[in-house]
Design a protein that fits this description.
CATH superfamily of the largest domain: FAD/NAD(P)-binding domain
Number of helices: 9
Helix content: 25-40%
Strand order of the largest sheet: 6-7-5-16-17-18-15-19
Strand content: 25-35%
Structural class: alpha+beta
CATH class of the largest domain: Alpha Beta
Shape: globular
Number of strands: 22
Bound molecules: flavin-adenine dinucleotide
CATH architecture of the largest domain: 3-Layer(bba) Sandwich
Distance between the termini: 36 Å
CATH topology of the largest domain: FAD/NAD(P)-binding domain
Oligomer: single chain
Length: 358
Amino acid sequence: MAHKFIVVGAGIVGATIAYHLARSGHTVSVYDSGTPETRATHSSFGWINASFYIDANHHRLRAASLESWRQLQHDIQSESIRWPGCLCFEHSGDQLEAQYNALQTLDYECEIMTTSEIRALCPNLPTLPTTALWLPQEGVAQSDRLTSELLHAATRAGASLNTPHPVERLLERNGRVCGVQTTLGSEEAESVVIAAGVGSEVLAKGIGVRLPMLSRPGVLLRTQPVAHVVDPIMVSSEMEFQQLPDGRFLAPTAAGHQSDESETLDDLAESTAMGLRTLRRLTGLDQLELEHAVVGWRPVPEDHLPVIGPGGVEGAYFAVMHSGVTLAALIGERVAQELSGQESSDLQAYRPARFIAS
Ligand SMILES: Cc1cc2nc3c(=O)[nH]c(=O)nc-3n(C[C@H](O)[C@H](O)[C@H](O)COP(=O)(O)OP(=O)(O)OC[C@H]3O[C@@H](n4cnc5c(N)ncnc54)[C@H](O)[C@@H]3O)c2cc1C
């Protein structure tokens, strides 16, 4: 049976949910407060991976999302996702071995590469490790472009996109959320999906729901284009980097950005300059020039795990997460299924209710 839904947020998570809801025959209105520049999605590195994870359940969710992305990429004919694999040398020695063993136990495809295999994979890079983990299934999305493709596909399937129109508050009647108050006026729906990234906490608070979020700013560097030197996604202990098909490099300034604990950005100019120096050294490209550095606020719930599901007040459904680029494909599918009446067992660990009890 078709229903009416409102999705708050047109980043990669809201866009994917809107796409799946509209494709399932529902009536969908999407509201977003800003231009793409205000989104975490805009400053994302875009690495789609399951080698970073918090526990086995979280790993399985991420690994399943890799499959969902391949299907979704095909369905919307996206040109914004590549699958070059990832060379990970964040750890060495026993730690690398332990990382490998843990991923093997989880049945995740990976191998330890020798020096000569690494050199064959990245013949143009001067600074290479002696051993590394090769993760052949992992990919990378140009997340902003992918989000636009998803929003276009959602609107082709009937969704309406209202931007820039902030949702000022969620409307309640008879103890349930029944719509939104926006700068355009009010609109009613059977359920409202809150996929507003770091803006979700304040919307939740407005209906008395506790959704504690951490402050996790990140900086993404983008260089001017240069001749092609490297294919895989590179994850070192100093920095992650990738080269786009157009020759530009992308790199977050913090190593291990998926577990970066910094709460503030003290000196943007200094961390940008340091990041560029590291990138030049790792690529051997002294001539690399910065095109721009963009700051984004990662939507990280207090316990680092995704928040997905109905919460607190009937009619409100939350979808807030870090590593949202990795997870959006699976979460979009699952949220549309749940809102169509089919509960997902793999989302039970991520319900917003865990914060209400704490
Ligand atoms: C530097 C950096 C690197 C990253 N690298 C990776 C990576 O390699 N892999 C990965 O998987 N993830 C990565 N992430 C995380 C990932 O980008 C985010 O988890 C993901 O983009 C979140 O998407 P979202 O749609 O939930 O939020 P957002 O992209 O932030 O979108 C939320 C939207 O909601 C809108 N909004 C907010 N409040 C309101 C309101 N009241 N009314 C209407 N609209 C509202 C905002 O305008 C915004 O457009 C990275 C993030 C950063 C910052």
